[in-house]
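User: What would this chain look like folded?
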Amino acid sequence: MSPTHFLEAPPPGVSALPGGLGWTVTDRSVAVRLLGDDRLGVVESAPVMAVLTARLPVEVRPLAAELAQFAERIMLQAAPQRHAALRKAFGRFFTADAVAALVPTMRQIAERIITGLAGKGGCEFMTEVAFRYAIDVGAHLLGLRPAEFSRLHKLSQRLALVAYASRVTDPAQAVRDGHAALVAIREAIATARADAPDGTVLGVWNSGEIGDLADVDFEANTVMLIQASLETVAGMLGNAAARLLTTPGALAGGELRDALIDEALRAEPPLKTLERMVREPIDLDGFRFEAGQVISVRIADANRLDTRPEDGEIAVAGRAVLSFGWGAYRCLGARLARHQAQELFGALHRIVPGCALADPEVERVRHIRFDMPRRLLVGWTAPAASPTDALTEALTEALAEHDLDRPLSSVERVVAATVLQERGHQRPDLTDPPQTIREWVTWAILDHG
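Assistant: Here's the prediction, encoded as structure tokens.
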């Protein structure tokens, strides 16, 4: 048998990364086949942390070891077998039935945000809508208050910087800062877990309904879910808005809206690249990818539906969008993200149907990983305020509370009664008053208006 000879030059759409680290992939066919190959894994944290630890003072090394052990528990950084076990455990929160059960809440969150902005006649979409909506939905899924979700996200960013500690002037201080963030994260999660609602990630963990995972698995993957459900979701919403709000009739829904959401994901994925590591040699089209090499897939390029002569008009992997990944490590939240987009843009159409970009020039984020608008100014014709809207606004301002369905405390109910009286409405009997802002408005306007 003659020996196998491999091509010296990589196949089309594959180019070398600097320093011989691996390969950049822009070809759809190559990307799909590599990402679907079990011999391709993720870039695991252990080797990175081992290089860092060797440079650290002896007294700091235990902190680095604890950070490394925590990182190894994160689903998207875990070895294939460990990843499969974690994916199975957390997959229950992202099934079709689980997402369908979340839809009414996502709709309510979207409507609350858009209703609160409707009277302004416009807003800055990224900060006032996309990020706020992503935070509120992510917080609900996990069982956190939105403010605590935001705080944990900031702590997780400090924690993530440890991966780059070897590049900074004082890596030991970077490790200390990262470990301090980890301590704060664990304390915050423990506190939130005790009060988390049933059915949420933290609530299920607290009730012991999910397997025999160690507490650190839940801590690590709570951090992962916080990171995965903010920038990427907000970026997806911003990129979709830039297309939907410049296309007449798209906001109304139907096939056009769904097609433009997919087109935004295809052409401008919120995450620019997928990084993978070759675990065992892979032979592809006469070229060998060696073990230990990094594969960096440029998602927007790999998403292109270029036809191939041998396939006629059929693109590789059909019209599938690779923006949520491909293969074993595909994003668990892909289905949830699509529903989030549909509910948000549905709420925009119902509440401010004339919503459109106020400035066609979209300022975009310049970031190595993310592709999204930095600012997205949108406008609409503000609806005339109804008595219901005016009273709702008065109550939310007086109580500093925008959740219309949260039960009010006894002190807050006294304040609400005072607001009603000041606006010419009858005060209810405080021995049996309405319980929420929405109920107070209904009582005043519809029952006693």
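The first strand starts at residue 14 and ends at 16. If you want, I can go into more detail on any region.
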